[in-house]
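Could someone model 2-phosphoglycolic acid with this protein?
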Amino acid sequence: MKNVIAGNWKSNKLMAEALRLMKEIESGLTSEISAEVIIAPPAPYLSAFASEAKGVLQIASQQCSATGSGAFTGEFTAAMLGSCGVKWVIIGHSERREGYGETDNVIRKKLRAALDSGLQVLLCCGEPLEVRESETHFDWVQNQLMHALSGLSNSALESIVIAYEPIWAIGTGKTASAGQAQEMHAFIRNWLSICFDRSTARGCRIIYGGSCKPSNADDLFAQPDVNGGLIGGASLNAADFIAIVTALENR
Ligand code: PGA
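Reply:
Sure, complex below.
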């Protein structure tokens, strides 16, 4: 199974600066890298990035619409992304759930739209602080995943990477401990083995996101059920992102 590392650039950087960052990252990564390395630049740059990306980098969109084509002003479909050379899409990020009203139902539809168009999906889940404090985080994450994944075939799961991103750790500098990450990832894998089957669960990549940086990447990636990372802030700096990719390669 290949590890996965993805940089989520969110709404940062103008075009020229963003392209420079991609080139810097590219030149710091050798073709021998075994992990899948993905960057998700802002949507207006996706087409240019997909044609400019050389070597190991793959391009992701930070979202897609829940619908097909039609009269949906401002939306872009999963099929459109595919037609631009985009291979991946992030679905269910907490910033979209919380800031743009993406309910479990919307996320379920987006996930299916993406799979139907042949995209691979980085599916995010994770609990807010009050849920962690009330110790109901396992139920919370299970519920999010059940909504998104129920009814899918075992083979559909091969196109999905699950990103566990506790909301209290996103952009806060407060990372989940390696033990907390491992505990949740093992829980998710066990749940997958019940809902799908053991070999599907074993083959599913589960990555961690939330203030992952060069100083904590080694610890996180040393955990047996952590198969990579979804990196926000630290992916906006080429040296930091490359250091995190290197930590994953050396795990
Ligand atoms: P962060 O963001 O690394 O800046 O915490 C992670 C994410 O939102 O995917």
